[in-house]
Amino acid sequence: MIEVQGVSKRFGTIQAVRDVSFRVEPGEALGFLGPNGAGKTTTMRLLTGFYPPTGGQVRVAGLDVFEHAQEVRRKIGYLPENVPLYGEMTVREYLDFVAEIKGLKRSARSRAVDRIMETCSITDMARRFIRKLSKGYRQRVGLAQALIGDPEILILDEPTIGLDPRQINEIRNLIRGFAGEKTLILSTHILPEVSMICQRVVIIDQGLVVAEGSPENLSARVTGANRLWLRVGGPDDEIRARLARLSGVVSVVAGDDAGSFIVETESEVRPEMAQFICNAGWDLFEMTPRTASLEDVFLNLVTQETPAANRTEGLGDE
Ligand SMILES: Nc1ncnc2c1ncn2[C@@H]1O[C@H](COP(=O)(O)OP(=O)(O)OP(=O)(O)O)[C@@H](O)[C@H]1O
Ligand SMILES: [Mg+2]
To answer: How many Å apart are CA 185 and CA 27, to the nearest integer?
Structure first.
């Protein structure tokens, strides 16, 4: 349904997006994850035909988004990073205005706006001026405008940024309600958001895709091995050295507290390890498996040292 093939975007000397490729199938929810300046917004804009790529191609339902901008835009509901809301309009006037731009006939407009206000729980705000709305309600209005025209595809650029925890929850639940029904691309730098809403994640850093997969697959990949957290009473150095020689153990390093150890393993070693510790006459206080979280994956992938020449921060137009 959405195909991004070798897409690049350059602004002068800044390479914001580099040779990015991914696909999104109908009904799928894809999380587009990356730190500030990674190229998320640029990619979302390329997907919506906001500007053409410097190289590569974006196709939606087989159509090049830039060549068939009109047709493609009708299929896409877009929540931009900064929603251009008109403060002097009421919520209803604004949504009606968006519906008109999207080509809905007058008769269909009022019904569509009513339905969407209901969905986004903003019916009570219909007659409020947008400039008087709280941030959370503004974001709902932003989502509502994206939903007008019942698009097959929703592209949401950091939909929960700047909201308080309760508002975040509400917006996430609202978005989750569309999962399965609509094709969803959600950009975020918030990890739990991705695991909650998306089946698949693309991680981008400095314009490059650095990983792609299900949240679970990515977690498995980053460690390669599993990790055990141990607390053992006995001679620290000896414990470390002898445990490291056990079969199935990759490495043993000291933990933060005295007597704690982090053990990388490549197979299930817990029964043998427990036995070994007891036989050695040490005290086993704790043995806890630790699989990598999506957060570990993210940090592992995007915080590696990179040459200074690649860095491109603080040059945005926003
Ligand atoms: N119109 C532009 N002109 C020049 N540089 C730009 C423009 N838009 C983006 N950039 C640069 O491209 C890079 C990627 O920016 P982008 O906004 O896509 O990042 P992002 O992942 O959305 O970051 P954030 O999490 O801060 O929103 C940045 O270095 C940014 O400064
Ligand atoms: Mg952005």
So the answer is: 10
